[in-house]
Amino acid sequence: MKIVDVRCHVLLDPGYQVGATSSAQDDLVVEILTDEGITGIGETDMNPWIGRACIEAPSTHSMGLGLRAMLLGEDPLQVERLWDRLYHGSAMNGRRGAVIHALGAIDTALHDLRGKALGRPCHSFLGEVITDGIAPYASLLPDVTSFDHYRDSLIAWARDAKRRGFTAAKLEMILGGPYAHMGIREPWSRGIEILTGVREAVGPDFTLMVDVAYGFAGADECLRTVADWQELGLCFLETPVPSDDLDGLGRVSTEQGIPTASGEWLATRFEFDELVTRGRVAVVQPDIGRVGGLTEAMRVCQLARARGLRVVPHLWNTGISVAAATHLAAVTSECPFIEYLPPDLTESALRRDLVTSDAPLADGRLPVPMRPGLGVEIDWDALERFERAAAAVAP
Q1: pLDDT digits 0-9 by tens, 31-75
Q2: Could you give the domains of the chain?
Q3: Element (DSSP H or E) covering residue 323
Q4: CA atoms within 13 A on the CB side of 19
Q5: Which is deepest, 195, 257, 278, 373, by most CB within 10 Å?
Q6: What is the C-alpha separation between 342 and 358, in angstroms, rounded?
């Protein structure tokens, strides 16, 4: 079997909002086609036009190759070897960042293709299944423009998530910083209003995480603010300070009692090694596409196991990424949760419509996928609709 083409689909939600700070509004979906008619699907969370360029770019020398050129004619079943080939062949293009994020979509598609070709689910190539179900947490980010509406919506959504069977939820509490959402900017001292309101709504036994999205200027501001959050039983505090302030993150990790989590932007195990060494986090959060695909995400899990850390994958795309995360979690004992965005608790048409085969939540858990490959089905009519919307913005 040989790879004969790599197709990039740049997708855009026709209802996207310029004022939002949410990558759920666009997507890069990659198809890898073979001479035997078997196709693999992957996606990645990045600017999809940039990702397409990393894949389709022509090349003039052997260390600055476009990703597609390196795949044509290759055996798609050699997934891990191809990861190394793509990494080294594109080394002068970055070794991190956009090139690795684009590689992540390709690697995930190769895992999907290998599973389909051999009639086995992706997790069967990754390790031994250690669970009969994966616990998702509901990731909640209302698209509203006032603090009061934001607070009330998070309380209502958390209550609804519990009613739907979730046992955990993460509050995207973005009151400032680079991710300030829909123009909301409030003093961080008001965060306690949201947290206490949600805790009262869901009760003491419901697991709560909070993501402040790099919102604190530094460790001192963060430590002052979260002192009031210590008694709320938070599972973790995600990305509290600017992403490159690893020493500040290390202070937050060691000078207060809420476990810290980070890693959603990182590419490769090498960046995660620096994160855990200097940032001292308790929870690593590889985004499967951005980190370099399932191959590299598993290497991050191995790093976490060696350091005694937990793994909670980040994902903010469609059911393609949800499926990839369930395969990873099925074989990773350090992974107590995966992020999950309920299709009916989201404003994103991409999340709701692109994948037609989302697994149902039962007793607060997602079943281990058993279909070949990732086990997802694409609504190709929906994909074409999102592709037309993207072409209207940037052909």
Answers
A1: 999 999 999 999 999 999 999 999 999 988 888 999 999 999 999
A2: 3-120+379-393 (3.30.390.10), 125-367 (3.20.20.120)
A3: helix 319-330
A4: 7
A5: 373
A6: 10
